[in-house]
Amino acid sequence: PVTLLARLSLAAVFWMSGRTKVAEGTLLTLSDNAVWLFREEYQLPLVPPEVAAHLSLYAEHGLPILLVLGLASRFAALGLLIMTLVIEVLVYPYAYPVHGPWAVCCLVVMIHGPGFLSLDHWIARHARNA
Questions:
Q1: pLDDT digits (tens, 9 = 90+) for 8-49
Q2: Of 40, 51, 64, 94, which has the most beta carbons under 10 Å away?
Q3: Helix (H, G, I), strand (E, B) or coil at 30
């Protein structure tokens, strides 16, 4: 159950962040405010703000869904770990008390796998029996 808690905790944090980037009344339409944040506040090097905002929007929706399902869990955790490191190093470098637990949750899933309550576990069990 520790891996399930890690998966669900990560999914909740990133899903809620992704929802703040969506235009009101839409499912996955990027808001103007999100682009403004990437242009004015986040200012990531080498990536245009419009591209970074879209990548973040899709990652913060898709990767949490994978984690909740326990599908491609290590891949999803790696993606969120990379996002966490980018946020910590380039955007909010003094927010380690927030980002550290996210990174630990990512590493737990990456090292130990998603646990038995996951599609990954179910698929692996059925592949061994096939």
A1: 999 999 999 999 999 999 999 999 999 999 999 999 999 999
A2: 64
A3: strand
